Amino acid sequence: MTELAKKEALLEASGYRYHFDRMIYFNRTKRQALSLEYVEDHSLEEIRDLVDQQPAANGWAFYFNDPPSDRVKHDLADALG
Amino acid sequence: MTQRKVEDFLREQYSELSPEIKKVLLQLQTDVEHLLLDVRLGLKHHERVHIEARAKECDSAIGALRRRIEGRQFDEDTPDKYTLTTLPDLAALRVLVFPKSRLDEVNALVQLKYVKHGDWTPDPVETGEPKRWRAWKYYGKCSTSSEIQAEIQVVPTLTGLFWQIEHDAFYKPRDPVLRGAAEKPSVRERREGVYEAFERLEQTLQEELDKNAAQDGW
Q: In this prediction, does ipTM exceed 0.90?
């Protein structure tokens, strides 16, 4: 299994779903969303640390390489439900 | 009145660019056909050099631009920051070549004309973990347009034919869910296995053809 596939397995085993259209891993309980690019560019340990974090206090927390604008966050939050 | 969305602006841009995309494609195809004429005339019975040309369609171009953005979400507050002219392949040629020796020959000609004697950028296709070379790719502009970027791919035949199948199966239906599934790491890992298998198959095929040629020489 490649490093990337291991990260995917970790996320899915931790209750994250893959949004096929947005190419985002997201967890509604934790209100966390990680872009596929972010997962690709960060180590398994970094992803594990995120998975272990407490849920975001206010709305969704987006983990992107290029931080999204407020408008994009708003539209993505709508899409993620 | 409904506010126009980023996609609406991009559709308008595409319709303005469309005639220019066609001109670029015509120039590119004609130039590469001419460049490879001698190679193609000299092919042995089992050798292949096949040139395919395509202009990116409107929806495909907008989709490609969207997929370059994390989260695949245009920022509707800043429509001006998006333009189709950033895409490197509005007009594109794919040259499918068999066997490897011809692939190297074709690539050397393309590289000489477009990179060494031109100002195109090499952008080889590398996939997998660790990264492995799959095909040659170059992008740049033709003299007929200062706006449209074009692309030339020089690809081993079996890999190129697999890309066509993949495109028809996963991307042509324009189903974003199917497309997203195809990009999942677990699916990508399987795809790498296919590339490896094709590479080995093509290499073995070449070895057998070489053996046959040596026997003919006896």
A: no
